[in-house]
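Bump. Still looking for Phosphatidylglycerol--prolipoprotein diacylglyceryl transferase structure tokens.
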Amino acid sequence: MLNYPQIDPVAFSLGPIAVHWYGLSYLAAFALAWWLAEQRRARLGLSREQLSDLVFYSAIGVVLGGRLGSALFYHWDRVMQDPLWLLRVWEGGMAFHGGLLGVVLALLIFARRHQLKLLAVGDFVAPMVPIGLALGRLGNFANGELWGRVTQVPWGMVFPGAGPDPRHPSQLYQFALEGVLLFVILWFFSRRPRPTGSITGLFLLGYGSLRFLAEFAREPDAHLGLLAGQLSMGQWLSLPMLVVGGGLIVWAYRFSEAGEQATLKSKAKKV
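Sorry for the wait, here they are.
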């Protein structure tokens, strides 16, 4: 059994302003994703100004979507009691599925503004997303939140506020699975040309599968508990991702690839 390392959620203070590890994790995620995107921006034919727009839109989508998703899916009762909680992002409380919807909307706006295909933009962005997921889970660990279920494994950890029983450090499981492992899979898959939509589909399928698996070690929200089928809210929200991701991969390889080849042949004949 291990003891939680008693991490102070506040990294440092600047006068009356307290800077939290959770907030720093998001800043680091955006900075690292931006740097990686810069190395690959030529693949989508983006200028540096366009890439800056894409990062800005994505950041707004993540924060607004993640916060609203957390309120809608997990903490509606808390919002009703304290509406200002929505503004205190540094306290934690971001829902990935809400953030995903926010990013999809942001990418749609960006793609229309710059006359790009939405799925092509999605394929460009998808490999960078696990970086944010990984650092976000480290932020959860630093906050001592979203701990796992009670366990007897040797690495079980006693979290403050979670009782005396050791629990799975599920934040670290999710860091490893949804963050590191998913990043490696997507990064290497996207190194070679793929049918439009297949990278986005793999991200949805991969995240949905890994999140569904990790939820078996994560403690369900106390006010929600396990839902129908003895599944958590996170698992139910991940199921549509499995369906959409798998369907998108099939569509990409059957129809998107065929359509792109037909377009190339048509252009070749005209030449």
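Residues 33 and 129 are 8 Å apart (CA to CA).

Edit: fixed formatting.
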